[in-house]
Amino acid sequence: MANLRNLQRAASEAAGKGQPPKAQPEPAPAATASAKPNSRAGKIALTFHLPEDFKRSLRLIQAHRGGGCTLEQLAAEALNDLFSKYNVPTVANDNC
Length: 96
Fold this sequence. Notes:
44% of the residues lie in helices and 0% in strands.
């Protein structure tokens, strides 16, 4: 049976009906610093999981302060308060 397959393959190749070469996958584009939006330049992501009530409370503060206050700004303010409590340097940020 293997001889028959080899014979069929040889006949197909001779007739120009061989299997087309497998397409090589294109390499993924290399990540560059310019791939980040300008709003994220010089920043890092801090990801953690908290109970849902934390988000609700943050949203209430956001509503109380009015428009234009982002969760990132609130988190930065909260972290700076924590830094002050433990007498470590705070980070300058644009408060809302």
